């Protein structure tokens, strides 16, 4: 498979945002306190449909810490599918029912999943829930399946040395507890296809000193009047998140090191899950008032309950939001206008407030900014001439 090279520039043209009124220009002009980072990739095809990339980056550096929140669920989904392939067990696939033993004082077990039509948990069902509504428990179960050490070592093998995946989400657990992962088994009927024992990660992490905010609220409601220390929390720099997206959507155009051991069927499944709306899902089924069409679509549509996304536009993405940090990474395709691009951004919208009390800032600052950013880049793409009309057929739902 031929590896293609792409150009990268650190220059995100100031002319794109300098004269913009409203929240887009405001945040770009005050980028430092907002910890703003943006990566936009233009994609051009040659006559053989091979992609060429040009990256525009704004303030991207691994030294700028952004809490990744739920964006860590993206590599979890990829590595869970890859682990199934690596196991190579006849009859074991993403649909095989899985049963998880409890870990005392850490996490409950799983012997059913009533959100599934089958009533059973599976890798595929957890991946669907991750992308449809960013379900925390679904991520935690994939974290337990992969294992903390394997999770990190595989991403480091990909060349992403600055990534640290250190904990589950939504559970107030200490660092030591997150090194433990549950025993589990997969069954087809009465036949056990695979058993995985409980595991402990001895992995050492490079020391960090990542702080944010001026005060924060603990899970017990206590107010801590000091910056929040993220040094033992997950770390996924935006530059690495963007490269993982590129590897998922253009595996033929990245190095062997960055490529995942997935089949065409695995990629098609990921594309379907990443672009589906909660309102279109029949398994699982969600309350459409709470989980509306644009619930997880921040770039271009701002997660607005009133948004109506045209059928020709598909947004393949994974957002994350917590402690004032809002991030989204997306491959966006417009089948009607033959447009495609990659766009990733992170912004810290609660740098002056109490971390943990962030919802108003997300709604009034973060989501409108990501919507405006998506609209800006989409307009640039509409006006940008393409040397060859891209064939986007493999991304159609």
List key phrases describing it.
3-stranded antiparallel sheet, disordered N terminus, 6-stranded mixed sheet, 397 residues, alpha+beta
Question: Would you mind describing this structure in some detail?
Answer:
The chain is built from 9 helices and 16 strands. The chain is an alpha+beta fold. Strands 1-3-2-15-14-13 form a 6-stranded mixed sheet, sandwiched between helices. It is globular and about 60 Å long. Mean pLDDT is 95; it is low at 1-5.
Short account of what is shown:
The protein has helices spanning 23-29, 73-87, 123-133, 136-146, 148-157, 175-179, 238-249, 264-275, 359-383, and strands at 7-9, 37-45, 51-58, 98-100, 180-181, 184-188, 191-196, 199-200, 211-212, 215-217, 223-224, 228-229, 313-322, 325-334, 339-348, 354-355. The protein has 397 residues and is of the alpha+beta class.
Layout of strands and helices, then pairs:
Blueprint: E1 7-9, H1 23-29, E2 37-45, E3 51-58, H2 73-87, E4 98-100, H3 123-133, H4 136-146, H5 148-157, H6 175-179, E5 180-181, E6 184-188, E7 191-196, E8 199-200, E9 211-212, E10 215-217, E11 223-224, E12 228-229, H7 238-249, H8 264-275, E13 313-322, E14 325-334, E15 339-348, E16 354-355, H9 359-383
Parallel strand pairs: 1-3, 10-16
Antiparallel strand pairs: 2-3, 2-15, 4-6, 5-8, 6-7, 9-12, 10-11, 13-14, 14-15
Helix pairs in contact: 2-3, 2-4, 3-4, 3-8
């Amino acid at each position: 498979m031929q590896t293609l090279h792409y150009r990268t520039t650190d220059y995100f043209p100031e002319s794109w945002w300098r004269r913009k009124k409203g929240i887009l220009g405001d945040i770009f002009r005050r980028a430092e306190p907002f910890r703003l980072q943006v990566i936009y990739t233009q994609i051009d095809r040659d006559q053989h449909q091979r992609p060429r990339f040009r990256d525009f980056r704004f303030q991207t550096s691994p030294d700028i810490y952004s809490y990744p929140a739920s964006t860590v669920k993206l590599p979890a989904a990829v590595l869970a599918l890859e682990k199934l392939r690596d196991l190579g067990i006849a009859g074991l696939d993403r649909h095989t029912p899985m049963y998880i033993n409890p870990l005392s004082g850490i996490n409950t077990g799983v012997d059913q999943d009533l959100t599934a039509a089958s009533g059973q948990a599976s890798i595929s069902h957890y991946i669907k829930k991750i992308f449809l509504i960013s379900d925390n428990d679904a991520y935690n179960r994939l974290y337990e399946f992969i294992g903390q050490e394997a999770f990190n070592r595989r991403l480091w093998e990909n060349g992403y040395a600055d990534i640290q995946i250190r904990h589950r989400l939504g559970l107030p657990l200490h660092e030591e507890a997150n090194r433990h992962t549950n025993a589990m088994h997969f069954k087809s009927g009465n036949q056990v296809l695979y058993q995985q024992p409980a595991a402990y990660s001895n992995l050492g992490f490079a020391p960090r000193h990542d702080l944010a905010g001026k005060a924060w609220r603990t899970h017990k409601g206590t107010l801590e009047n000091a910056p929040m220390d993220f040094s033992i929390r997950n770390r996924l720099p935006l530059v690495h998140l963007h490269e993982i997206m590129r590897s998922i959507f253009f595996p033929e155009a990245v190095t062997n090191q960055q490529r995942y051991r997935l089949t065409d069927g695995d990629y098609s499944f990921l594309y379907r899950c990443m672009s589906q709306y909660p309102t279109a899902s029949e398994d699982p089924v969600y309350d459409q008032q709470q989980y509306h069409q644009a619930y997880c679509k921040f770039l271009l549509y701002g997660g607005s309950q009133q948004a109506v996304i045209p059928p020709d536009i598909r947004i393949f993405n994974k957002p994350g939001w917590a402690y004032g940090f809002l991030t989204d990474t997306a491959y966006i395709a417009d089948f009607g206008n033959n447009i495609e691009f990659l766009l990733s951004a992170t912004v810290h919208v609660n740098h002056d407030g109490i971390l943990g009390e962030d919802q108003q800032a997300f709604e009034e600052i973060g989501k409108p900014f990501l919507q405006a950013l998506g609209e800006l880049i989409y307009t640039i793409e509409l006006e940008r001439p393409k040397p060859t009309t891209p064939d986007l057929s493999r991304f159609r739902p």
